[in-house]
């Protein structure tokens, strides 16, 4: 089976067009089309039909997609298993990380790892924690660094690495920050009177925040939602609302709001699939750079 052709097919299905698939795989559009024709000749079916200036997947393509993904994952498993059996560390190491962890926690250990093992091809995917979690479960990533979920998935294993206290913040000139100057502590009810800027409700960080309000029967007035925490920090700093951010992101452009009897915390760490054989590279990264370095 032509692995390159299958990878091209899966990428076209994911991206929705030959041109975007070509950009992602750093190939020309004719090269992608040739690989698709190889598959159609191999299986004796049409996988796409032209629609205007684009293409439409056929039912055969829809049926092939999950099988092709499994075949590629099995192929990667074979490569990983063979790599694991060799003393030489090398090959592709595909990991995922949330933007916050990737920007604020991973640079130092990943720099040390890359310098110590230049023969490893490190493929870092920046995705939301929830997406990274699912990608590890599906076998698409070997390791992921993410906000650990409030409820663990029994099919996966986790390692707590960084404690990440959360704080309520607003711009120094925001009414809540001004009120906090004269009132030692604010209440959650005070916060509900002003617009909040939070990650999507499906994110672990937002779930932690919303749960604090739901426990006392309160709901929030959310003005906008965006997932990257650095983006939220900027929006809060210009006075568009208050938010909940990791304490490590607080600077002179933000004021910490003292909320009566409320402390929010989240834990950042690593997740992997225990039934998947980790490559040598993944094992070294996992055990030598993180397992013994909590709160690094």
Task: List the main descriptive attributes of the protein structure presented here.
single chain, 296 residues, alpha/beta, seven-stranded mixed beta sheet, two-stranded antiparallel ribbon, 12 helices, disordered C terminus
Written overview of the protein:
The structure is a single chain. The chain has helices at 3-15, 18-25, 29-43, 59-85, 99-104, 107-116, 129-137, 175-182, 188-192, 204-214, 229-237, 280-289, and strands at residues 48-51, 54-57, 91-97, 120-126, 143-147, 157-170, 196-198, 222-225, 243-246, 255-257, 264-272. It is 44% helix and 22% strand. The protein is of the alpha/beta class and 296 residues long. Helix 1 packs across helix 2. Helix 10 (204-214) links the parallel strand 7 (196-198) and strand 8 (222-225). The strands form 3 sheets. Strands 3, 4, 5, 6, 9, 10 and 11 form a 7-stranded mixed sheet that branches. Strands 1-2 form a two-stranded antiparallel sheet.
What's the short version?
The chain is α/β, with parallel strands linked by helices and 296 residues long.
Estimated helix fraction: 40-55%
Distance between the termini: 45 Å
> Order of helices and strands, N to C?
HHHEEHEHHEHEEHHEHEHEEEH
- Main beta sheet strand tally, sense and closure: 7 strands, mixed
Please, how many helices?
A: 12
What's the mean pLDDT score? 89
């Amino acid at each position: 089976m032509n692995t390159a052709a299958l990878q091209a097919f899966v990428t076209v299905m994911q991206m929705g067009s030959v041109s975007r698939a070509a950009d992602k795989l750093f190939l020309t559009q004719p090269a992608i089309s040739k690989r698709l024709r190889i598959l159609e000749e191999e299986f004796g079916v049409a996988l796409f039909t032209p629609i205007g200036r684009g293409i439409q997947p056929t039912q055969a393509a829809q049926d092939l997609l999950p099988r092709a993904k499994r075949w590629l994952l099995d192929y990667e498993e074979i490569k990983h298993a063979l790599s694991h059996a060799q003393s030489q560390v090398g090959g592709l190491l595909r990991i995922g990380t949330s933007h916050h962890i990737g920007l604020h926690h991973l640079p130092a250990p990943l720099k040390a790892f890359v310098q110590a093992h230049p023969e490893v091809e490190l493929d870092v995917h920046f995705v939301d924690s929830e997406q990274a979690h699912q990608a590890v479960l599906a076998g698409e990533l070997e390791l992921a660094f993410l906000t650990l979920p409030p409820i663990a998935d029994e099919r996966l294993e986790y390692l707590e690495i960084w404690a990440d206290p959360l704080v309520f913040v607003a711009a120094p000139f925001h009414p809540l920050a001004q009120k906090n100057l004269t009132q030692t502590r604010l209440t959650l009810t005070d916060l509900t009177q002003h617009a909040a800027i939070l990650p999507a409700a499906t994110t672990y960080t937002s779930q932690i925040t919303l749960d604090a309000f739901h426990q006392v029967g309160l709901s929030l007035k959310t003005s906008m939602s965006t997932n990257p925490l650095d983006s939220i920090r900027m929006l809060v700093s210009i006075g568009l609302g208050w938010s909940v951010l990791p304490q490590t992101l607080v600077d002179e452009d933000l004021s910490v709001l003292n909320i009566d009897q409320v402390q929010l915390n989240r834990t950042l760490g690593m997740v992997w699939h225990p039934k998947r054989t980790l490559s040598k590279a993944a094992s070294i990264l996992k055990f030598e750079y993180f397992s013994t370095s909590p709160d690094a």
